[in-house]
Amino acid sequence: MDEATLRVMFKLAFNAATQLEGLPDFEPTLDELRVLYTFYLQHPHAPDKARAQLDQHRKTAHTEKECKLIDASERLAAETWRLEKIEKLEKIDPAYPTAYARGVQLFRLDRYGDSARAFETWLDAHPDGPFTLRARNHLRAALRAKQQEL
Fold this sequence. Notes:
This protein has helices at residues 3-17, 30-42, 48-60, 64-92, 98-108, 112-125, 132-149. The protein has 150 residues and is mainly alpha-helical. It has a domain at 97-150. Helix 4 (64-92) runs antiparallel to helix 5 (98-108) and helix 5 packs antiparallel against helix 6 (112-125).
C-alpha cells in the first residue's frame, strides 16, 4: 500500500474513531477517495465472512477437485466484492467510467448477458472516446461467450 492510500485509510479510521464521519471538513476529498478505490479495485478480496467459511472448507478438503472448487468460490467472492466497489464508486465519482467497468467485471463473473448490456449502455452514451474500441471488443466477446453458453 502506498503512502497516499495509507493516508486516506488513516483519515477514515480516525474519523470513525472520533465520530467525525459525515462532517464535511473531515470527509475525504474526491481525489482521496479515487486513491482509495484505485487500491480497492486493484486488490479485490472475498469478504471476511466468506474467507472464514472458505478457510473452514479448505481444512476439510481431501481432493484436488474440492480444492479447485474452493479456489473458484474464492475468486467469485473476490470479483463480486470488486463489483460492489464499482457500484459504490459510481455514487462517489460521476467521472468514473462505471458502465464500462461494470461490463468488464460482469464478464469476469461469467455473466455475459449482463456484461453485454453494460457495454451497450457505455457505447450508447460514449460512441467515441478512449474506451470505445475496447468496449466494442468486449461487447463482441460477451455476445460470443453468451452464445457458447446456449
